[in-house]
């Protein structure tokens, strides 16, 4: 018998294509992340056969007993039992968003007759989720403030679709602490000096954001960690500025994942994911999700999901449900392995003259610049409570020598003959093509390790000036560290690096 007793979804006799909140949220939210991942959405009581796995419901239409009377489903684009199960599971994992939604509904007096369902809305891809948020919030000439180092497909949508077709404009702003002066190494700072400096940096960052906000700004869009430089932006700080101006803060949480980071609990209004990455986790399903506990936004996204019809197939939903059940254990292994690779690069690769500028949010270097210290502290602050509990149990702290696990992505610059080369990627290509375990491929977040050259692959379509500004050159390599044996991964990186450099 399931340890979690959740009553079945009551049939919705209203418009049918949307569902009421489907479970007594208060009884669920006390369970931990990994338990929720397994049970929410997969309650046997919700399945006609009491199966412990949700049914794969392929029917596109549902019989009505009388005109307008049905058991909650009319047509599969509008709502589908497998997708509904996935959405409940996703809402539970991303910051316990159904609980936050329920609180907001009660506060706004909307809980009776609420029709827009769970706080998560599933899409056919991350790009479809992104398009829905941008067109839903900032069309008809609205303005977006976006973090500069944003995913190339997102900036493409902002500039080539929203701007050209909907008159939406975007300002790209650096919202990280990695500013020029933040790179200097400060010695012998007292705690008080550190705190004062941090406050000044926070103020400076807020002013930069305030300076970009206009009367017509409809969305603030951030990613953290960013792609491919893995810079961090302070979600809580940005959320405070966003709130002051009444603008929704949207966080694309794809490069982290809900196990490591819950932007909603840090004050964000909306979270977006490419579920193709860590949520799917096996490089075999495309998907996207929007999560928001704000009723008015949720209704709008739910409406657009049905109106635009860019929904995931029931089978893709079913695969995602299955994948999410192992998100906790996959994320932990990704984090431990990525930390090992980052540490090897920093502790062996840098002194050996093989690489420079190793980027991993939780990495602690023996000598840190101010920006690096700030980012490491932020990586710790922005960890979800669940991840932090596990990381501490493993014996790590914010100040651990070498750092702490903080996700599965690592990037670095290989040292080529021509240091800092904008275009010469010969050494990087030798390294990438010499790897045996890391597959040379775009994408990330799967159980198998991947490596790529952003200059010519994921970021090939970004304007050269912008790439140069962001440090994306012929030497930059991005790794998605999988869950193979950590020793094997380090050995693969070492062998291929030495072969690429020491010709
Ligand atoms: N957001 C980020 C950060 C991504 O990396 C990607 C894809 O790489 C997307 C959104 C788009 O997701 P999809 O490829 O599932 O459309």
Q: What's the CATH H-level homologous superfamily of one domain?
A: Type I PLP-dependent aspartate aminotransferase-like (Major domain)
Radius of gyration: 23 Å
Main sheet? 7 strands, mixed
- Based on Cα principal axes, name the global outline: globular
Organism: Leucosporidium creatinivorum
Pfam families: Cys_Met_Meta_PP
Pathway: Amino-acid biosynthesis; L-cysteine biosynthesis; L-cysteine from L-homocysteine and L-serine: step 2/2
Cofactor: pyridoxal 5'-phosphate
Write the topology of this structure.
Blueprint: H1 25-28, H2 33-39, H3 81-93, H4 97-107, E1 120-123, H5 126-138, E2 143-147, H6 152-166, E3 169-173, H7 191-212, E4 217-223, H8 235-245, E5 249-252, E6 270-274, E7 288-291, H9 295-308, H10 314-324, H11 327-349, E8 355-359, E9 363-364, H12 370-381, H13 385-393, E10 402-403, E11 409-414, H14 426-434, E12 439-440, E13 450-452, H15 464-470, E14 476-480, H16 486-501
Parallel strand pairs: 2-3, 2-4, 4-5, 5-6, 12-13
Antiparallel strand pairs: 1-7, 6-7, 8-11, 9-10, 11-14, 13-14
Helix pairs in contact: 2-3, 3-10, 5-6, 5-9, 11-16, 14-16
The protein binds pyridoxal-5'-phosphate (PLP).
Pyridoxal-5'-phosphate binds near residues 126, 151, 223, 227 and 274.
